[in-house]
Amino acid sequence: MVVQAGLSGLQQAVSLLRMGCFIALIALLSPRLALFLIWIFSDLLSRAYSSWILPLLGFFLLPWTTLAYAAFWDWAPGHHLSWRWIFVGLAFLIDISSDAGGRRAQSARG
Questions:
Q1: Structure pTM?
Q2: What is the pLDDT of residues 75-106, one digit of tens each?
Q3: What's residue 27's pLDDT?
Q4: Which one of 18, 52, 62, 86 has the largest count of C-beta atoms within 10 Å of its C-beta?
Q5: By CB neighbour count within 10 A (0-12 exposed, 13-18 middle, 19+ buried), where does 45 fall?
Q6: What are 55-78's pLDDT values in tens digits?
Q7: Which residues of 3-40 are buried (b: 16+ CB within 10 A; e: fewer)?
Q8: CB-based contacts of 94: which residues, under 8 Å, 6+ apart?
Q9: Which whole-number Å values give the CA distances from 110 to 18, 98, 99, 101, 105, in the listed order?
């Protein structure tokens, strides 16, 4: 019985690892799709954010930043200023630059 319970726990861990890799690949293509899948299949967003409004705003305004903050909240047991915040800041810069690039392309067309 104990061996069987250990085996099912190992199978569950492998399944979660595979799903995490799949979500990471999806995030490279579309951070909004990755956020949607994380919202549907896990409770990561509810653990990282205390209310539903911040992830919703982040979904529309800053998807990379929302995704990076939620991921590092889960991966980092100590939530202090460290190398993890560099990645959240980098995600913020990516969000801002993609917004600025879209506005520049829109003004060039019109």
A1: 0.74
A2: 766 656 677 888 899 999 999 998 888 888 88
A3: 86
A4: 62
A5: buried
A6: 999 999 999 999 999 888 877 666
A7: eeeeeeeeeeeeeeeeeeeebeebbeeebbebbebbbe
A8: 64
A9: 45, 18, 17, 14, 9
C-alpha to C-alpha distance for 79 and 101, rounded to whole angstroms: 32
Among residues 45, 48, 25, the alpha carbon closest in space to that of 36 is found at: 45
Residue keyed to tokens 């990282």:
48
Q: What local confidence, expressed as pLDDT, does residue 3 receive?
A: 46
